[in-house]
């Protein structure tokens, strides 16, 4: 506990310096600021909105239109008109511009669009999806018919791959039959083979 009776301690507690003031055991540090009374409310006062939730739901607030910007003047045309009206001095031309107002023309001529209902603007879109044909499985029937005709035509034409393989085998057999006997020395012509190599048989017999 702090010795409150000591002069040095009492001086420190009265300095209102938050770094020098000591807190007592179990108590918070004394306040060093002069605070307003308890009735004072801190923070920014929230202003009440003119329209509550009921007014927003029940009524519709129209958007206020922005004021139109003043249009530029066509000074070239104004100077020509002022000369025709014999307004040649700067003061006369300034007064003439206030009385006679002319819009400045754009560098490009505006496009004239005819009010024609038959004319279509923009890029063309894709055709609409035929929902009736999709739900009625029309495309499924068409696909099955195309597959049926494709398989029928394939059966009539035959298997070209199988025919080509058979033709190649027959050609190889004919080439083997046409070949001459292998060269052997005379002393080995009558010697029988000790192993069964099937060299004496034709390829047709082997198959």
Structure write-up:
InterPro entries: CFAP77. With 207 residues, the chain is mainly alpha-helical. Among the domains are: 1-32, no CATH class; 131-177. 39% of the residues lie in helices and 0% in strands. The longest helix has 20 residues, at 138-157. It is flat, with a radius of gyration of 56 Å. Mean pLDDT is 75; it is low at 103-109.
Number of strands: 0
Provide the low-confidence segments as ranges.
103-109
Average pLDDT rating: 75
Largest sheet properties: none
* Basic shape: flat
Main structural class: mainly alpha
Radius of gyration: 56 Å
| Number of helical segments with 4 or more residues | 8
Pfam families: CFAP77
Write a compact overview of the structure shown.
With 207 residues, the chain is mostly helical. 39% of the residues lie in helices and 0% in strands.
